[in-house]
Amino acid sequence: MFSIFKPYIFSLDPEVAHDLAIQSLKLNILPKSFFSVEDEHFLETKLLNEKIPNPIGLAAGFDKSAEVYNSLFKLGYGFVEVGTITPKRQLGNPKPRIFRLEKDQALINRLGFNNHGSEIVSRRISSNSPNGFLGVNIGPNKDTLNKEEDYYLCLSRLSSFAGYLTINISSPNTEGLRDFHDQKALEKLLSGVNKIKEDKKIFKPVVLKLSPDINFSEISRIIELIIKYKIRGIIISNTTDSNRDKLNDLQKDEKGGLSGKPLRDVSTNLIKKFYKETKGKIEIIGVGGVDSGHSAFEKICAGANAVQLYTGMVYKGPGVVKNMKKELISILKKENLKSINEAIGINA
After folding, report:
1. Is the pLDDT of residue 2 over 80?
2. Given phi > 0 = left and psi -120 to 50 = alpha, else beta, which region is 30?
3. Cα 117 to chain center, whole Å?
């Protein structure tokens, strides 16, 4: 059905199409059984000590204000991440701010953390309990003077409603955010996160979302801090503001973060590096160019415990997860693997 409507959807401005998708999902009319597949038990796994039906998650950026996560669970996702949520409501950057690069199966966005704010989101989730493993991605407001305090406020306000929380230090669309990849800045932030967790008795797992544009030389220092401050996992990776040279679409030079197929190998190689250095002790969620069972399996074999997608759903529609699950199960059977867990890191 998506293939029939796709030409119309792609004739719309990308942000208009996104808003239409959110409104459609609010109707919550599709039955969960429609997106089930046979032998799905092959895909059962654990993420951050939580049992999930499959390792395919929806990345932050789609359900920015936690409006439709339960409808998204019905599409077959093993887990869903909402946000990025900032302390105060934020309109984001001027429009237009999303661009489809159809020739490259990619998107460029410079949204700028547009969301309804932590107070509204916390009330929304408290009144509509998640029907699955829900991650909440948090970040600072654009005009804040102390970004660390914004993380701490969101952590305090949203932790009781989340299965896990993601510290987003990697969006290229908030000035100064990627400065937190610096060792001193990151240590200060993670130390403060741990203090808030201790003071507020927050026991939910925290993960760190990293930039794909870091130098390999930085990996060891980042891992050292992740272990020191007991960060449970890492998301590899966010969008990139590089890697434009080989793109074909005329909109390739638009300012913003690039996602989709051009990021596939970049993120997979980074997953391998982190997996090798952590020896599998830190859980990894792989993101970037995931749009099929094969691309998901590739990242899992590189060391990811689970994967996330967003751009893949834009181009392939809401049935993408069902097709990915079928393909993953077929791959596992072909490789004589009894569980998706057996594939983690086998090619790293």
Report:
1. no
2. beta
3. 19
Give pLDDT tens digits for 147-192. 999 999 999 999 999 999 999 999 888 888 888 888 898 999 999 9
Strands 164-168 and 306-309: unpaired
Asked whether 85 and 135 are in contact (CB, 8 A), the reply is: no
The mean pLDDT of the chain is: 94
In the Cβ-directed half-sphere of 280, how many Cα atoms lie within 13 Å?
Answer: 13
Q: Helix, strand, coil % (nearest 5) of the chain?
A: 45, 15, 40
Task: Report whether 137 contacts 83 (CB < 8 A).
Answer: yes
CA–CA separation, 99 and 110 (whole Å): 9
At 89, the amino acid letter reads R
pLDDT digits (tens, 9 = 90+) for 67-117: 999 999 999 999 999 999 999 999 999 999 999 999 999 999 999 999 999
Selecting among 118, 159, 171, 259, the annotated active-site residue is 171
This model's pTM is above 0.70: yes
Structure tokens at 338: 């009894």
Q: How far is CA 92 from CA 124, 148, 183, in A?
A: 20, 19, 28
User: Annotated catalytic, 242?
Assistant: no
What's the CATH architecture for 2-343?
Alpha-Beta Barrel (3.20)
